[in-house]
Design brief:
Layout lengths: L9 E9 L3 H10 L6 E6 L16 E10 H14 L9 E7 L6 H4 L9
Antiparallel strand pairs: 1-3, 1-4, 2-3
Length: 118
Amino acid sequence: NSLYDENISHYCIITVVDKGRGKECMKSARLAGARGGTLIHGRGAGIPTDFYFPLVIEPQKDIVMIITTKDKVSTIRERIFSDLELGKAGHGILFTLPISRTSGLAENRSGDSKEGTS
């Protein structure tokens, strides 16, 4: 995919959704080929609740982090975006970050892959 740096082998997909939707996000990611992820609970500290009246913004958030290979990142992102309807206001945000080095990933332990790139 031309959107991603050819020198980067792994990306982190980060999705921030309302509390309770993290498991739904992980389910979508797994259906798209993700091997796993990390779910962290957090609290939003952005725009006040009454700013979007009558849309109520849930301050408690689930943050899902998924590390995946470059060849799977677009498929996983698109599936999460679609299934969680992230195009709708207040449904969450999704972004990706390049990862320059990895260690400890299941794929690295199994011998399937090399240890990232510099």
